[in-house]
Amino acid sequence: MIQQPTLDFLSELVENNNRDWFMANKGRYEAARENVVALTDELLKLMHKIDPALSPDLEGKKCVMRIYRDIRFSKDKTPYKTNFGISLPTTGTKLGGAEYYLHIQPGKLFIAGGYWMPEATHLKAIRQEIDYNAHDLKAIIDEPEFVKLFGDFRDGEKLKTVPRDYAPDNENIELLKLKSFIVLHNLTDKEIKSPKAAETIAELCSKIYPLNVFLRNAIA
């Protein structure tokens, strides 16, 4: 579970996003990160039973993303992220491809999964898989509990025009226009602080698992 001091640190970082404050509170950051890593390790134990594609080499400390922002090409020059991001990739130990993602930020917590903004070759392969086997994808995303947890999959970020090689009257054109193939479920601070937080997150990931399988098969 995530402890209140971890959330307190992130909340205060929003108002003090500068190097002097961060360095003065480096011990708090390190304790918060250790808390997040511990939750991730607990979650991984459950996730290996849900998704066999998760690498046995994954460790919590490798899955927790850096808090330092890359500000080289950003107008926002604040040096630190105000959240902890945890990525569980399903294609080895590197980011990219179908994955599970946990976002820890006070009042803005969520669990997500799928494939965000696939590279061109993967995007083409996923669209082809949808065109050939849309019934398989729709069986996943139109299942009532899936819709209740994650909303309408078709509402994701889309092209404004019809993708190349597909006709406007294709019955699955709204799925084919998608640029990302992700789902998201918001969590409460209470849920993430519960002793059963890892179990709650793993259960949600189990509902995302069939979508990730579909996406992995498409790019295999």
UniProtKB/TrEMBL annotation:
Pfam families, per the entry: DUF2461
Listed InterPro entries: CHP02453, UCP028451
Source organism superkingdom: Bacteria
Entries under PANTHER family matching the protein: CHROMOSOME 12, WHOLE GENOME SHOTGUN SEQUENCE, DUF2461 DOMAIN-CONTAINING PROTEIN
Record protein name field: DUF2461 domain-containing protein
Organism whose genome encodes this protein: Mucilaginibacter ximonensis
